[in-house]
Amino acid sequence: MLIVDVLTIFPDMFIGPFNESIIKKGQEKGLLKINITDIRDFSVDKHKKVDDYPYGGGPGMVMKPEPVFNAVESIIVKYEDIKPSERYVILMTPQGELFNQERAMELSRKRHLIVICGHYEGVDERIRQFLVDKEISIGDYVLTGGEIPAMVLIDCVARLVPGVLGEASSIEEESFSHGRLEYPHYTRPEIYKGYKVPEVLHSGNHKLISEWRSFESIKRTIIKRPDLLSSYPLSDIEQDLISRLEFNTTKDKKS
């Protein structure tokens, strides 16, 4: 089971997303356990204040260290049977490492994730330095807070937990799983508004279908995300596949 604890000052934002679709089913199967913690409950201020003005001046407010430290420490005590190596404390922030499928797979192997949703101008630097294991960003842009990025991260990681999706092959063929975008999909009807499903997909020849899917996956990656090739260069097998199928495609068009 993967346990995920989310620390936020807006806990109601998570009611809908975590009670629908795959994440809901994963929790019902006992493969996921998601807890939402209101950081304000751990404030040392009688007014439940969690932010204050920045030292040195400047615009905006900064999240105070005490409520966040207190919340994380209370959660760790609650799950004291989990080893530190099996736990990851994450801060969602635009300054973090860019999130990707490889990082999601790594996180899915942990037993416990604690996800902190930042807000305002940011968090007290001591949270970054002494509490967090990893800062993660979902993209080079700024959102109102860390809640939506946390939902993205948890959705991506949760579906990689064994059993959540049902079939392991569903994960293996998805985009980014092997540095390639996923191949095109088609379903019935075979002809719609004059547009036909590629003949190879209803040929019954599984070898040809597999080759076609591999070729389309590579082609789509080259066209849409060539940057992926720097980390995942084309293999000799893939290059051979491209040369063979491109030749066949050209020959078919000429005939």
Protein model, in words:
By secondary structure, the chain is of the alpha/beta class. It contains 8 helices and 9 strands. It has 2 domains: 2-166, SPOUT methyltransferase, trefoil knot domain (Alpha/beta knot, 3-Layer(aba) Sandwich), CATH 3.40.1280.10; 173-254, tRNA(m1g37)methyltransferase, domain 2 (Trp Operon Repressor, Chain A). The chain has helices at residues 21-28, 65-78, 101-108, 125-130, 147-158, 168-172, 206-224, 236-254, and strands spanning 2-8, 32-38, 51-52, 62-63, 87-98, 112-117, 134-137, 191-192, 195-196. The strands form 3 sheets. A 5-stranded parallel β-sheet has the order 2-1-6-5-7, sandwiched between helices. Strand 1, helix 1 and strand 2 form a beta-alpha-beta unit. The longest helix is centred in the last third of the chain and has 19 residues, at 206-224. The protein is elongated. The model has no long low-confidence stretch (mean pLDDT 91).
Structural class: alpha/beta
Indicate the CATH class of the largest domain.
Alpha Beta
Discrete helix count: 8
Strand content: 15-25%
Question: What strand order characterises the main sheet?
Answer: 2-1-6-5-7
Beta strand count = 9
Biggest pleated sheet: 5 strands, parallel
Helix content: 25-40%
The averaged pLDDT comes out at 91
